[in-house]
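This section describes the prediction task in plain terms. A model, or a person checking by hand, is given the sequence of a single protein chain and must write out its three-dimensional structure as a string of tokens. No templates, partner chains or ligands are provided. The sample shown here is typical of the held-out split.
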Amino acid sequence: MYNNTVNSTGKAMWLVLPEWQGFGLSDLPARGARELARHLFDGRDVVTIDVPDEEALSVDGGVLGLAALGPRLAETRTAIHACGPDRIFTIGATCGVEVAPIAYLNQKYDSDLAVLWLDAHADLNTPASSPSGHFHGMVLRTLLGDGPAALVQQIPRPLTPGQIYLVGARDLDPPEADFIRGAGIRTAGLEAFSDPVQFARDVRQAGFGRIYLHLDLDVVNPEDFASSLMRTPGGPSLDDVAALVCQLTEQCDIAGASVVEFCERHHEDANRVAEAVSKVFR
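The expected answer:
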């Protein structure tokens, strides 16, 4: 069922996409997405894209599971366009689920959209540069129009490098680092979390009408929060992430947000995430 509520912030769509195939090794992140959705989307009219718990995946064009990813992207795009939302809030198994919601919003708002990528990784590999062949490490590059053809052809308006902020990225493959420098993509480290008021002000003053907030939970320091798929040393605390999310929500117009790659390792961690992002997912 689609959420057709219209208020001062427009029509919202609540999307659950437990697509683990962008990681490809197990359905652990799919189970995490379903668990997190129970905490964050309780009482909402949720759109869920069905995903099989088991699926044999092959490598095509350097991408594991590409034959599964393309049709599911088309299915997700169809569901989003049927709803016609102004805002999309997503819980996904992996970063790979971001193609459909971000592409839709970027087209809807004529590229007047800043994409804040809170993630320990840049996800800017191509099929040729990826050391793993896992699509969740290629998704942002694909949204820029440089990815698997079967997916890029479904993106009507690719992002430009000037729309992207990498926030908290600290585990980059050399080709990603080279691309970031050459493309002039904005980056922010721990300073974004230590002074969230100023960072949110800087984003607002950049002149974008709306922002999309991507939260891969591996941006959080695993010593504080261990329930992410790709635990990466360093990074902010979950409280610091919550403070930044709060400031961005207060100072900017949120067109969409996501939480991805949750893999519950401690019983209360789903509640902790729900509390951290409650301001934007209200």
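For orientation: The CA atoms of residues 130 and 137 lie 7 Å apart.
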